[in-house]
């Protein structure tokens, strides 16, 4: 590969380059979906994590539902989601309302994620399972993807989610091993890999997926090594996108990768054996998730 070594010149991160362009949220579909989320008291990672693709996705009537509240028990230094102590509170009616939204939007593919809930014995796995069950009852033709936390290595909790039969199980690795302590101080690199591997052991034919951010200060060799580590778990789909710092309180951007470099990373991933690699500046874990699943012919 001809990718240059990452640079840390602060001048290069002062403003986004020309290829970082997101659609301004607006339009009838956007307004309708926002109203639906408020009426049903649902959260989306699109809003909570300040996703740059919210304008495009919501106008296409797609969203990534974020369950188990909007307060995360971890303090990852790249994420805009509110941090704090949920105090064990669980909204048992949330799966029903999520099912109503899936039915109302006539979704063909839905992504369900959550905040980390380390305050719960099962990390929220039972609520994930109930959301899968009700979404399928409301919209039987809809494929279901879950983007789950590491569950602190609780494989019984993982099995609870897998037994609900999502078509795709996604867990983001996020960054390279060296940067975990800085970016994800309460997570463990090997545990994330183990979760992906364990998922395949429990249900070999289930599609697994993971995602990486670039631009946090990793070297290209570290990035390629991480991609290879993920591929060794049997992971089917990989997403790679540019890290964009939500605020000055979060980790700064160390480097912008060019569209050409993202293309090279895609080719490298396909060579490693991934069935599908979505790689680009504004790619996020759930971006074009339905198209990703269909392109692999795995669902």
CATH superfamily: Aldolase class I
Strand content: 5-15%
CATH class reads Alpha Beta
CATH fold topology = TIM Barrel
Kindly state the mean pLDDT as a whole number? 84
Number of β-strand runs: 8
The biggest sheet, with number of strands, parallel, antiparallel or mixed sense and barrel status, is: 8 strands, mixed
Describe this structure in words.
This protein has helices spanning 28-39, 45-48, 54-59, 94-105, 125-138, 155-163, 180-183, 189-202, 220-232, 259-272, 289-295, and strands spanning 43-44, 64-67, 109-114, 143-147, 168-170, 207-214, 237-242, 276-280. With 299 residues, the chain is an alpha/beta fold. The protein has one domain (21-295): Alpha-Beta Barrel (TIM Barrel). It has an eight-stranded mixed beta sheet with strand order 1-2-3-4-5-6-7-8, sandwiched between helices. The protein starts with 27 loop residues before the first helix and ends with a helix.
């Amino acid at each position: 590969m001809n990718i240059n070594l990452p640079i840390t010149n602060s001048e290069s991160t002062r403003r986004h380059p020309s290829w970082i362009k997101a659609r301004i949220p607006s339009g009838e579909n956007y307004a309708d979906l926002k109203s639906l989320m408020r009426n049903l008291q649902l959260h989306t990672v699109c809003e909570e994590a300040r996703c740059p693709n919210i304008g495009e996705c919501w106008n296409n009537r797609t969203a990534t539902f974020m369950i188990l509240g909007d307060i995360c028990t971890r303090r990852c230094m790249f994420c805009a989601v509110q941090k704090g102590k949920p105090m064990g509170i669980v909204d048992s009616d949330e799966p029903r309302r999520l099912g109503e939204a899936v039915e109302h939007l006539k979704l063909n593919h839905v992504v369900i994620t959550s905040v980390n809930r380390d305050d719960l014995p099962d990390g929220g796995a039972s609520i994930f399972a109930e959301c899968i069950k009700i979404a399928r009852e409301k919209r039987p033709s809809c494929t279901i993807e879950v983007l789950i936390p590491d569950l602190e290595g609780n494989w019984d909790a993982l099995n609870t989610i897998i037994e609900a039969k999502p078509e795709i199980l996604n867990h983001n690795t996020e960054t390279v091993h060296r940067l975990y302590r800085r970016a994800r101080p309460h997570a463990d690199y090997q545990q994330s890999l183990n979760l992906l591997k364990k998922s395949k052991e429990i249900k070999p034919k289930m599609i697994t997926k993971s995602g990486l951010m670039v631009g946090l200060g990793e070297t290209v060799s570290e990035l390629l090594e991480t991609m290879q580590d993920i591929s060794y778990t049997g992971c089917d789909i990989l997403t790679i996108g540019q890290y964009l710092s939500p605020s000055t309180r979060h980790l700064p951007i160390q480097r912008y990768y060019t569209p050409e470099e993202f293309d090279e990373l895609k080719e490298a991933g396909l060579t490693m054996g991934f069935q599908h690699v979505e790689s680009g500046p504004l790619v996020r874990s759930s971006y074009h998730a339905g198209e990703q699943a269909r392109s692999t012919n795995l669902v």
